[in-house]
Amino acid sequence: MTLAIRHVRVTPIAFRDPPLLNAAGIHEPWALRSIIEIETACGRVGINETYGDLPMLDALAKAAPALQGLSPWDLNTMEDRVAALVSPAKTGSEFLGEQISLAPGTHVSKNVAKVISAFEVAMLDLQGQLAGAPIVDLLGGAARDAVPFSAYLFFKHAEHIDKTRTEYLPDPWGEGITPEQMVAQARRMIDQYGFKSIKLKAGALPPEQEVAAMLALAQAFPGAPLRIDPNANWTVATSLKVVEQLRGVLEYYEDPAPGLDGMAAVARESDVPLATNMVVTDYKEFADNVRLGCPVRIVLSDHHYWGGLRTTQQLACLCQTFDMGLSMHSNSHLGISLTAMTHLAASVPHLAYACDTHYPWQDDEVVQGGRLKFEDGSLRVPRTPGLGVQIDPEALARLHDNYQHCGIRNRDDLGQMRKYDPTFTGKQPRY
Ligand SMILES: O=C([O-])C(=O)C[C@H](O)[C@@H](O)C(=O)[O-]
Ligand SMILES: [Mg+2]
């Protein structure tokens, strides 16, 4: 059968990442991803982008034989085979020790869902090419022609501490610490991309400074929906104090306090809707939230660790059933991930918020034609078959070369922060 999958290629890549601050520490100079290419016997190739840390590369290597001889249409068999080959291994907290669990995608406990997602999108790309239809049509059709994203702001240093990396030029964003600098950061991002909503990554500086930045943003961008996300780095008491200081400012309040219990304690005292990508990250946690009466009102989905585009559509149905909202989380990524997010978000009528994206923080690309273009803060949903983007082989080789030379094999925001402050523990909640 010429349609049968005969080869899976996984290429780890690295691209420059600015010194962005968060609750766990600070971004390293290079972010890792991996590019998946699934090739059929007749030479057709479906592509995708996912995490690039070593445990993920190991899981992908373990699971690749599952695809041998499979039709690109047979997603259910792929899922069964991957689940059989990739054990859930340790839980996220065992893996991360005391470090804050910022990115559920880096947890090995999510390996099965992450690998299924990695293969599913590439197989959907193949399906779309075979059917002559964009992925969004395979998902039921577009509920919108363009998907809005938000301006995702970070407190940041002007330069990385690693001065020996001569190949790393300072990024154009400059320092982002004071309220004035954060307004300038937002202005630059909005001028360049047209975003209408603003998210501030918090949990990095003392809360008073972060509140001051939010109030400055609210004043500078009246009417713009605003969110703040300290990644559970605040106690319940601090979370309540902050939400009071930001009264009337927030569209939603993302992961202020640790754990579902912490979130429930905040929800009991505040009427601002709580959102999460930390405590509802799979169906079991979804059920836990429902059992508690839904203290979390908005789930930030992420197909990379929820198990793919179709699973995220199911998540959307569940959210609708329980009268919960749906938004979209991101990590440092390039255009293939962004395109998959766009197809998915376009296919989910219930996803009514502007999605998160780290895209403006990256300056490189792996797809042909270079950086994707936002219009008025949104990305148009591709109408060409499959994902609608193709790999640029030269760019892939260059980004793989970065990977070979960057020396980073696992994201380590905590270790990077210890270069600045050896006493930094990363223990949560810090404030
Ligand atoms: O919404 C979130 O929690 C994130 O985007 C998690 C990320 O890891 C973010 O904190 C980052 O990139 O530093
Ligand atoms: Mg978050």
Automatic annotation (TrEMBL):
Molecular function as annotated in GO: glucarate dehydratase activity; metal ion binding
SMART domains from the entry? MR_MLE
Spell out the Pfam families in the cross-references: MR_MLE_C
**CDD domains linked:** D-glucarate_dehydratase
Give the record's pathway: Carbohydrate acid metabolism; D-glucarate degradation; 2,5-dioxopentanoate from D-glucarate: step 1/2
Cofactor (UniProt): Mg(2+)
**Source organism superkingdom:** Bacteria
EC number(s): the record gives: 4.2.1.40
Identify the residues that the record assigns to the Mandelate racemase/muconate lactonizing enzyme C-terminal domain, covering every copy.
179-273
Catalytic activity, as annotated: D-glucarate = 5-dehydro-4-deoxy-D-glucarate + H2O
Q: Where does substrate bind?
A: H27, T106, Y152, K199, D229, P230, N231, N277, H329, S330, N331, H358, R411
Entry keyword annotation includes Lyase = yes
Q: Which residues constitute the catalytic centre?
A: K201 (proton acceptor), H329 (proton acceptor)
Residue intervals passing through the bilayer: none
Q: Which UniProt keywords apply?
A: Lyase, Magnesium, Metal-binding
Q: Which protein family is it in?
A: Belongs to the mandelate racemase/muconate lactonizing enzyme family. GlucD subfamily.
Q: What's the name of the protein?
A: glucarate dehydratase
